[in-house]
Amino acid sequence: MKYYYRYFTQYSKFFNCVLSNQESVYFDASYLYNYQSSCYNLASKKKLFYFIDPESYKFQYGGDKSFYLNYLKYFEELEGLFDRENRINIDFLNHSMNFEDFYKKIIRFQRTMLASTHIPLDFYASIAEGTSDLKIYNPLEQLKFIICPYFEFYEIDDTFYKLNKRFSDITPINYVLLRFPKKILSEYSNIDKIVNDFKGSAGILLNIINLNQYEIHDLEKYFGNLIDLIYKFAKNQQNVILMNNSEFGKYFKYFGLNDVCSNVMIGQKTIDYEPNRSPKRQANTDLVYIPQIERSVSITSSQSLISRNKALKKDYPDGVIELSLDYRIQYYYEFIKEKIKKINTLDFKGIIKEFDRNFKQLDYKLHQKKYKYVLNWKELLNTKYKEFFK
Amino acid sequence: MHKYIENRFKNYKFKHETNFYRKRIDFTYIDEKSKVHAIELKVKDWKNSLHQIEVNQLFANYSYLGIWHEYDSIVPKSVFKKFGFGLISINQQNCELLVKPRESHILNDNLSKKIKTQIIEGHY
């Protein structure tokens, strides 16, 4: 189990100074296209492993933001691929030649976009002068896998679902990214259908929209069925990566999940895409990660948590509210590394004990109530574990 | 509700909408002993105020919920007593203290000073 951190320049300090060498990140394709040098500099400096999300689902929505339009330039040679609203032209795509060209173009982007970034001249100079024994960073060697073009589907067997299926059949070694609303998970028959339709692909990435918004009584319906989906893919020897809700999702490792994706400090929330909204320039950085509740909360809530629950004081200094962002990020990273280490080494019983041990550290009644979801997670994991392995 | 609460505490230094990181505190004032009081105003939804009242104790010596008088009977006073939060029932003429708060034991001096400065500077 490992984390793929989603790269954003707002957290450049984390990526450039805190993140260890040879860790894993991922780049959104439109982001990479707009910030190519910054992505290359980071990846090469730290020799990072990475993958690229081609974000082709955005073509379903169109839009006129420059960030998006820049990315479309990459597809210029496929004349007719987009309509006047910059949305994908399905009729165009339905011609087999165009279909294949589009597929190849998306694949090529992932293979070449970092690799084609210019390499500083002094690097060549040092090679020519024989003063360098450095091995050139070859982005292609660090690319973990390639993702087929994909679209967001709203129903099983709708147009976009079928297109995804066709893309996945072209080269099974490429991974499939399934992006869909969580209501799909609530119908159990959908789980078997999806597993069966995409069983040929080497790997599956799951990105489920609004998964973080649920009532407690829906936990089983969405997360329980998600665990089933992961379990069934894993049983087919397919690599499974969860793109959102890493806070809870990392525990699905016990059901076959390989890796999770996350933003820095806060798990990724996949929400409905709004084409006319510019990407957020400023991420919320007023956060503190609290390991006992498995997530980051506002700096004020964290101060209250630490002030009222004595056991939490061992993790943070008393005045957490006065800690700089750099310190808070450093703490976050250390906690996550430690947690992943535990998940990778402890058996299921051991990790369940961890849940209890952690939650017991909250002794203030109001906090026990507010953060009770941790116990609900534990309960669901227990139920599913018994279902599969006992 | 803002104007009724202001009317009750107009003799103190007070401020509406005090900034506290990403939150705004509905009403704050400083009493004659230089203690900070913070009041969250809600018409009815007392449950959703608990967390904010609790966090307000980081900077306020006394933290309250101010609830519209028609709904004060639905608020369980025992919960407020248990956690040391104050409860004020507000109507057009009067503000009645239903539960007296206990002084915060998680007060952060720096935060309290910052809030006091805002109240003093914002008071007119």
Which keywords apply here?
heterodimer, A: 390 residues, alpha/beta, TIM Barrel, 7-stranded parallel β-sheet, two-stranded antiparallel ribbon, 18 helices, globular, B: 6-stranded mixed β-sheet, 4 helices, 28% helix
Description:
The complex is a heterodimer of chains A (390) and B (124). Chain A is 46% helix and 11% strand. Chain A has 390 residues and is α/β, with parallel strands linked by helices. Chain A has two domains: 2-262, TIM Barrel; 287-389, no CATH class. Chain A has a seven-stranded parallel sheet with strand order 3-2-1-7-6-5-4. In chain A, strands 8-9 form a two-stranded antiparallel ribbon. In chain A, strand 5, helix 12 and strand 6 form a beta-alpha-beta unit. The two termini of chain A are 23 Å apart. Chain B has a single domain (2-122), classed as Trna Endonuclease, Chain: A, domain 1, CATH 3.40.1350. Chain B has helices spanning 2-8, 50-56, 77-83, 109-122; strands at 13-20, 23-30, 36-42, 62-68, 86-90, 95-99. A six-stranded mixed sheet of chain B has the order 1-2-3-4-5-6. Chain B starts with a helix and ends with a helix. The model of chain B has no long low-confidence stretch (mean pLDDT 94). Classes of the chains: A alpha/beta (390), B alpha/beta (124). Chain A binds chain B through residues 284, 286, 298-301, 303-304, 307-308, 319, 321-322, 365-366, 370, and chain B through 20-23, 50-51, 54-55, 57-58, 82-83, 106, 108, 110-111.
Protein topology:
The complex is a heterodimer of chains A (390) and B (124).
Chain A: E1 2-6, H1 12-18, E2 24-28, H2 29-34, H3 36-46, E3 49-53, H4 66-73, H5 90-93, H6 96-112, H7 121-128, H8 139-142, H9 159-170, E4 176-181, H10 183-186, H11 188-197, E5 203-209, H12 219-235, E6 239-242, H13 246-249, E7 259-262, E8 287-290, E9 295-298, H14 299-308, H15 325-345, H16 348-360, H17 365-370, H18 373-389
Helix pairs in contact in A: 11-12, 12-18, 16-18
Chain B: H1 2-8, E1 13-20, E2 23-30, E3 36-42, H2 50-56, E4 62-68, H3 77-83, E5 86-90, E6 95-99, H4 109-122
Parallel strand pairs in B: 3-4, 4-5
Antiparallel strand pairs in B: 1-2, 2-3, 5-6
